[in-house]
Amino acid sequence: MIPSLLLVALGVYTQKSRAVPVQSLLSRPVFDVQGHRGGRGNTIENTLPSFAWGLIDGVATLELDNGITKDGVVVVWHDENITADKCKDTQPVFEGDPDYPYVGKYIANLTLAQIKTLDCGSERLPTFPIQLTYPGTRISTLQEVFDFVSCADPHHQIQWNIESKIDAQCPNLTRTVDDFVNKQHAVFKKSPYLGKITFQSFDWRSLTGMKKLESSIPTAALISTGSSATNNGARSPWQAGLDISTFPGATLGVKIANAAKSIDADILSPNFVADGSPVQDPALPGFIPFTTKDMVEQAHELGMLVKPWTVDGLNAAQQLLDWKVDGIISDYPDTIRRWAEQQGQTVSPKYDQDKVLACLAKHLETSTPK
C-alpha cells in the first residue's frame, strides 16, 4: 500500500469524529436518479438522443462515458473500441484510408474525423429491445454534448456524472491517465457546467489526478467484483495499486468504503450485484449482492455518498433505498424516477419535451463529414 494512504487508513477510519457528516457533503434536495449512458434502456446509448430523453424523463443527473481519440479529442462513448453491435461504417474519411473499415478499431487509434463517419444510431441492442434508434447518429464530442444540453437547459441546472474509460489492465488500449485527466479537465473548466460535474472512474488513479487539478470537482469511486482485488496481497491496478484486504473492517463492504475514503473520494459507486450472481433480483434465491448495507453505512459514516449502478429492477432499488443510498444509476431512469416519487422521494422536474426535441434537431449530427 502507498504509505500516505496507509496512514489515512489507520487514522481517519478509527476516529469517527473526523468524518464529515454525509448531509453536509454534496447534499441535494432531490433523490439522484441518474440516466446510465443517458438511459440506454430507452434510447441508443451515449448519444444526443439518449441525453435528450433523459432530460424529458426527468433525470437529476446525466451519466456518460469519455474516450479520447488519436488526435486528443474527448468523445462521449463507453467502449474502448467501435463494436459492430452498436455502430456501422459509412465511408472512409479519404479514399484508400488504410484504417478503414473503422468498426472494430480502438477509439485511441482513430481520429475524430474517422469516428465522425460512423453511424452509431441504427443498431438496437437485443438486450434492450425497446431502445429508440436514431439512424445515422454520430458519436459526439464532450463539448458538443455540453452545447446541446445548454440549449435545452439554458440555466444549467442538470447534474453530470462523467466517467474516464481507462483500461488499467491493458493500458495500451486507451490513452493514459494523464491524457484523460488533463483533456477532460480542459473541457470541464470552460464549461458552464463545471460546478455540476462529478468525475467517476474505475481507475482510481484518475480520481486522485483530477483532485490535484481541480479539488472542487467531486469524485466517485466506481468498483465491482471484477475491478477489485480482495485477496490478501492482491494489489489491483484499478484501485491505484491498493490492496483492499489490508484496510480496516470486518467485511469486504466496510473495507471497500475505507479504501475509497483513502483516496478522498466524495462518492462510492459500487455495482449493486456481484459478478457471477445467477440472478439480478434480491427477491430471488441465489442473488449475490456487491453493494451491502454495511458498505453503505460505513461510507456514510466517513462522509461519502453512495450511488450504486446499474439498477434496473425495482426490488433491487427498494432494497437499496431501504439502506438509504443517495442515488441510483439506471438504464431506465424514467421507471426509477416514477418509483422514487411513489416512495415519497423528491425528484427532479422534467424538461419540456418540445424544447428539448427542438434543440436535438438543431444539434444532432447525422450526415457524413464533407
Structural notes for this entry:
- With 370 residues, this protein is an alpha/beta fold.
- Helices cover 29% and strands 11% of the residues.
- The chain has helices spanning 3-11, 48-56, 112-115, 142-152, 177-189, 204-213, 252-262, 293-301, 314-322, 333-342, 353-363; strands at residues 32-35, 61-68, 74-76, 159-164, 197-201, 219-223, 267-270, 305-306, 327-330.
- Strands 1, 2, 3, 4, 5, 6, 7, 8 and 9 form a 9-stranded mixed β-sheet that branches.
- Helix 6 links the parallel strand 5 (197-201) and strand 6 (219-223).
- Helix 2 runs antiparallel to helix 11 (353-363).
- The longest helix is centred in the middle third of the chain and has 13 residues, at 177-189.
- The chain is globular, with a radius of gyration of 20 Å.
- Residues 1-27 have low confidence and may be disordered.
Helical run tally: 11
Beta-strand portion reads 5-15%
- Name the average pLDDT: 92
Shape: globular
Q: H/E element string? A: HEHEEHHEHEHEHEHEHEHH
**Helical amount among residues, as a percent range?**
25-40%
Distance between the termini: 52 Å
Described by strand count, sense and barrel closure, the largest sheet is:
9 strands, mixed
Number of strands: 9
Helix-and-strand structural type? alpha/beta
> What is Rg?
20 Å
Low-pLDDT regions: 1-27
Organism: Pluteus cervinus
Protein name: PLC-like phosphodiesterase
